[in-house]
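ugh ok fine here u go
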Amino acid sequence: MTQRREVERAVRASAPHALVDTLRAVLAERYGALSVELLLADHGATALAPFGSVGAATEPVPVANSAEGRAFGGRQPHLQTRHGDIVEHHLPVTVRGERTGLLTVLLPAERSAPDAVDDLVHAAGLLGHELLVAERDTDVYQRARRLSRLTLAAEMQWQLLPARACSADEYAIGAQLEPSHDTHGDNYDWASDADQLTLAVTDGMGTGVNASMLTHLAVSALRNARRAGISIEDQAALADQALYAQYRGAAHVSTLLLRFDIATGLVQAVDAGSPQLWRMRGRAIERMELDPQMPLGMFEETHYKAQEFEVLPGDRLLVVSDGVHAAQSPQGETYAERALARAVHAGRLLPAAAVPRAVLRDLADFRGAEAADDSLVLCVDWFAEPGERSRRPTNAEGGAR
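structure:
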């Protein structure tokens, strides 16, 4: 325990850009680590980019079909013996359920005891939280995870997004956005407190910087209204007014808003555009038909009405943008006709954090061509029994139960 505290003190006292170097030095001193390397997930979570001591990315490691990728996608640290007397430890770097990368530590076999491994797992979790804070002050980690330069529109789009995953005792969330080449402005957002979880999926008009600017205004307006503590009906109305005041109806944003009451499982929904909501309950998968309302910013002073439904323990909800449900195969079939339900069923045993990537991989195979629109998938697994009280989010990974 003393060694663990020393690691914590060293990492927390480190300069933001030097976290990996600091951790490497203290693990070598206290645990005899022969090598300590950080691999950061790229924006699409398809590859792990090695982070060098000066922040330079070298050859990325694919998430698919690699030991590092299996450890990154799994729930437990992965151990692999090399040369008989050296043990390679692959440790997921997580922040509240989101995997941001992988810490690889080589220890002499005689130092690779269970207590030491537990300390390394703790160090990987500590690094995840410190990286999150450090990215406010340095760009080295952002540069390392980029396999290619982002366009300005993509930069604006990515900076709006929260994490790719979040988990608590009552729910688990996973989301993934794959911007098209032209960037169409899709976005997801969420926030939770002791009593409620609020989700938003938005899809703005246009492409490039214009689409990103439109989406930026919409998401900022929704956050501003949400943080005022008002209903999702009023959140939609205030965002609608902000967009109309700026664009006078010439541009609008399709939006799906969901607010979950954690104690009861009651959900309020405002369906204002193209994102679709799907539910898997048991083995049954169906689209939830909500009352369609006007997209945000289309008309002046639109009034929005929330409708209600209930989620039960074990339910899985999926929100997909039109770049997913309306995508077409070479034969002209839309993805929502049959393929989406098949993909959701095929991934029923995956945790919520892994579902969006699995669906988007299946979509790419179905489409058989470069995406013409942004593709966004958000998954929510619901665990809470009616009447349960909310607890703080944890690092535990949620999955279909």
